[in-house]
C-alpha cells in the first residue's frame, strides 16, 4: 500500500457549520451519505475519541476526529508512493490552507500518522511538520 502524508488541523470546538463545510468540500460524494457522518453533521455529537475515515474528493482520505476534550481534528491524506519532496511541500501548503479555511490555531503533518484524539496526544505527537499551538482549554 502506498504511503500517505496525513495533515491535521485542530478546531477548538465542534461548530456544525465547520463540520458541514469540511464534509461538503473534502468528502467524496459516495461517502457523503454515510450514516455516521450524517448523524454527526445533523447533531454535532458523536463518540469522543472516535475518528470517521471517509473517502476524499481530491485526497486519499478525509478524516473527522472528535477529541476526548471537546475539540475536533480535521484531516486529509495525500498519496505519496515515492516519498517525494514535492508531496511533502504540498502537505505543508495544505496545513496552511486548512488552518485558514477552518480558523484552526494549529496544524501537524507526517507520513502515516493517526489522528490525535486528545489535546495531550496532539501535544505529545512529534510530527515531521507542526505549526501553531492548540489553546489551553476548549470548553
Task: Describe the protein's architecture and organization.
The protein has 139 residues and is of the alpha+beta class. The protein is 34% helix and 27% strand. It has five helices and six strands. It has a six-stranded antiparallel sheet with strand order 2-3-4-1-5-6. Strand 3 (61-66) and strand 4 (72-79) form a beta hairpin. It is globular. The mean pLDDT is 91.
Distance between the termini: 39 Å
Mean pLDDT: 91
Strand content: 25-35%
**Radius of gyration over C-alpha positions, nearest whole angstrom:** 14 Å
Sequence stretches where pLDDT stays below 50 over 5 or more residues: none
Tell me the series of helices and strands, N- to C-terminal: EHHHEEEHEHE
The strand line-up of the biggest sheet is 2-3-4-1-5-6
Shape category: globular
- Please tally the helical runs, counting DSSP H or I stretches of 4 or more residues: 5
Helical/strand content category: alpha+beta
Largest sheet, if any? 6 strands, antiparallel
Tally of DSSP β-strands: 6
Helix content: 25-40%
